[in-house]
Each structure stands twice: as structure tokens, then as C-alpha cells.
Amino acid sequence: MVLNKIIFHIITAFLFFLLYLLINFKVSGSELDELFLKLKNSPNAMIAQKYENKIWQSWLTDGSNKINNLKMKKAVTLMENGDLETALALFINLSKMEPNWAEPKNKIATIRFLKGDFYGSIRDIQVTLKLEPRHFGAISGLAQINLALKRYQDALKNINYVIKIHPFIGIRNLRSVILKLLKKSQI
């Protein structure tokens, strides 16, 4: 019985330590640069996915403190569960509190896109890209918006640009579709 309690406390302490590391995990600028370099030079999609995940983790935990990182996590969960209004309010609040953190602006752009506010989304994507020009998620979103707005040439430029950052990004598969649409529009 005593041994079970000791094991329980050790496991609990270890889990809290892991949670602490996840909340406080920060990637320095040079480490992020290294991740982008590895992403760009990945030999296959599986390896690229590993680096993409680490970059997303960095972006999502780049707040100035633990509380804001937890707010980001909560807002992402709300967004994933379809509570867009509450998530949007949290992301807007985070973007005001941390104007140099790109990810809240990117999430605002995502929600605006989901709600059909393409021009509002574009404005937020522009802010995101000023803060993080390599934000492959924001660039992919811009490509999707340009495709929806039938701006095929712009969508193609976005996809060509994002492929230089992330050669295995899923949106690259739309390139051939856009080329066909461009060809049809020229007839």
C-alpha cells in the first residue's frame, strides 16, 4: 500500500514535470531557423512532417509567459471544437497583449477564413507574415483565399512560394489544379 502511494506520487510528479516542459518549451530564433532549414531540406514527407510539427509547437508556445501560452492552447481547443466566437475573442485578446506574436493573428485569419470573411483574413495574414515571413500555414491560407476568389495567378504564386519553405506541404497538390484553371481562363 505504501509502495503504491510512493509510485503514484513519483508518476504524478513526473507528469507535472512533463506538463511544465510542454508549457514552457520555447525554441530560440536560431533553433527555429535550424528547423526551417531542416524542413526545407527534408528528403521525404515523413521527415518534413516531424519538422513541421516542431515549428507549429514553437509558434503555438511563443507567448511571453505561461499564462498566455495556456490561453493559446485553450483557444485552439475551442476553435477545433467549433466554438469560433469564443476562440476568436481569445485570439484577439492575445494579439493585443502580445502584438509581436504571429500565431494569434494567424488563428484570427483562420477563423475569418472559416466564416467567409476572406478580406479580413487577408489583412490578418499580412500581419502574420510581417511577423513571420516563413509562416507556411498563413501562406497556404492565402493561396486558398486567392483560389476561392478566382485569383488563380496569385494562388499559384502563393503555392510556389510556400513550396520553397516547405517542399512537402499538402497544398502543393493544388498546383496542378490551379494550372488547369489558369489554362481554361486563358481560352
Which series of helices and strands comes N to C?
Answer: HHHHHHHHHH
CATH domain class? Mainly Alpha
Per DSSP, the total helix count is: 10
Rg of Cα set: 20 Å
The unreliable regions are 12-25
How is the biggest beta sheet arranged? none
Give the helix proportion (percent range).
over 70%
| Class computed from helices, strands and strand pairing | mainly alpha
- The total beta strand count reads 0
Strand residues, percent = under 5%
Q: Which outline best applies?
A: globular
CATH architectural grouping: Alpha Horseshoe
Describe this protein's structure.
This protein is an all-alpha fold and 187 residues long. It has a single domain (26-185), classed as Tetratricopeptide repeat domain (Serine Threonine Protein Phosphatase 5, Tetratricopeptide repeat). The chain is 78% helix and 0% strand. Helix 7 (118-131) packs antiparallel against helix 8. The relative contact order is 0.08. Residues 12-25 have low confidence and may be disordered.
Task: Map the helices and strands.
Layout: H1 2-24, H2 29-40, H3 45-60, H4 66-80, H5 84-97, H6 102-114, H7 118-131, H8 136-148, H9 152-165, H10 175-185
Helix pairs in contact: 2-3, 4-5, 5-6, 6-7, 6-8, 7-8, 8-9, 9-10
